[in-house]
């Protein structure tokens, strides 16, 4: 039986290198590359696309659109495409690549020809909010606020250089114009009709991520308790290998780097019942479940490999 093959278009970036490293540990996949001199040559890239089963786009948005069109121009010989950019995440012709988002999503990814890999921040936010919206505990028009901190590796080459060669700030807020490029998918796949307020930040650590959503419990339908929120999340992710709902930390602290170099996503409900307030928190590695790890999970699903299992084995394996 011939092993499926993958071409990473843009393999020299942080996400591309991460995908390549992870695929090296997957025995059922062949990763093909172009010589460095040919990586910007459309004809060479198109020829490579015609030789493989799946192309991963690790490119800026405009270049990803062009590369997707290049693949599509092969017609019936076109490979499957997984886009790690923001370009196609809310495009209805592309399947959103968050296998654990809802029951059946892993099956949709497995059957899809075009999949959009999720953003790191939306993975945490959607992972927390979507189950509560689907269960009716959070109204679709609820005024959601999302706060998050990421390691600097999520900011691309310029931010990495700023931190690793110039020292970088210890901590900073950014995207305070409230137009972060992850907002459209965050709103769409959390099923919110009201646009969330999203305030991201970056810390002087290479990787790691915390995404938090504060809630006033008495403003929610039925006035749920923290235990109610926890129970809904726990039931939603039953059977998932990579997503878990953890008990609140007794000291009230969460460290962003605890899941570094893993593909796991941990969800928490911290609550003060006396004050009727809760903070939902997602913890993940922005380079793992937030990027390359999620991509390899989707590649496994799209190619029918064990690497893709773990989304929701009781439903979609």
Q: What topology does this entry show?
A:
Blueprint (H helix, E strand, L loop, with lengths): L4 E5 L4 H10 L6 E3 L9 H8 L4 E4 L3 H12 L7 E4 L11 E2 L8 H7 L2 E3 L3 H15 L10 E7 L4 H9 L6 E3 L9 H7 L7 E7 L5 E8 L9 H11 L6 E3 L19 E8 L4 E8 L3 H16 L9 H4 L1
Parallel strand pairs: 1-2, 1-3, 3-4, 4-6, 5-6, 7-9, 11-12
Antiparallel strand pairs: 7-10, 8-9, 10-13, 12-13
Helix pairs in contact: 1-9, 4-9, 5-7
Written as H for each helix and E for each strand, in order along the chain, the element string is EHEHEHEEHEHEHEHEEHEEEHH
Strand order of the largest sheet: 8-9-7-10-13-12-11
DSSP, total strands? 13
Identify the overall geometry: globular
Estimated helix fraction: 25-40%
Strand content: 15-25%
Q: How many strands, what sense, and barrel or not for the largest sheet?
A: 7 strands, mixed
What would you call the structural class? alpha/beta
Separate helix tally: 10
Cα radius of gyration in angstroms: 20 Å
């Amino acid at each position: 039986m011939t092993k499926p093959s993958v071409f990473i278009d843009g393999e020299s970036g942080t996400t591309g290198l991460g995908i390549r490293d992870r695929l090296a540990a997957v025995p059922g996949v062949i990763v093909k590359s172009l010589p460095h001199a040919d990586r910007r040559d459309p004809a060479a890239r198109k020829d490579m696309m015609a030789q493989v089963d799946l192309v991963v786009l690790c490119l800026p948005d405009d270049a990803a659109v062009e590369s997707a069109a290049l693949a599509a121009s092969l017609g019936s010989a076109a490979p499957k495409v997984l886009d790690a950019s923001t370009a196609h995440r809310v495009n209805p012709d592309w399947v959103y690549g968050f296998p654990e988002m809802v029951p059946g999503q892993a099956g949709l990814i497995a059957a899809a020809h075009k999949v959009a890999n999720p953003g790191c921040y939306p993975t945490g936010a959607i992972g927390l909010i979507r189950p509560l919206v689907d269960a009716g505990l959070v109204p679709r028009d609820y005024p959601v606020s999302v706060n998050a901190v990421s390691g600097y590796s999520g900011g691309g080459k310029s931010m990495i250089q700023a931190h690793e060669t110039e020292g970088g700030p210890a901590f900073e807020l950014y995207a305070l114009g409230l137009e972060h490029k992850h907002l459209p998918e965050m709103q769409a796949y959390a099923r919110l009709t009201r646009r969330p307020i999203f305030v991201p930040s970056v810390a002087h650590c290479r990787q790691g991520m915390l995404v938090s959503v504060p809630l006033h419990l008495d403003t929610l339908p039925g006035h749920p308790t923290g235990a109610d929120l926890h129970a809904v999340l726990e039931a939603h992710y039953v059977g998932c290998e990579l997503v878990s709902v953890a008990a609140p930390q007794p000291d009230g602290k969460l460290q962003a780097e605890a899941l570094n170099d893993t593909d796991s996503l941990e969800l928490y409900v911290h609550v003060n019942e006396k004050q009727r307030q809760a903070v939902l928190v997602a913890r993940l590695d922005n380079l793992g479940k937030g990027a390359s790890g999620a991509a390899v999970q989707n590649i496994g699903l799209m190619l029918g490999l064990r690497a893709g299992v773990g989304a929701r084995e009781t439903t979609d394996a």
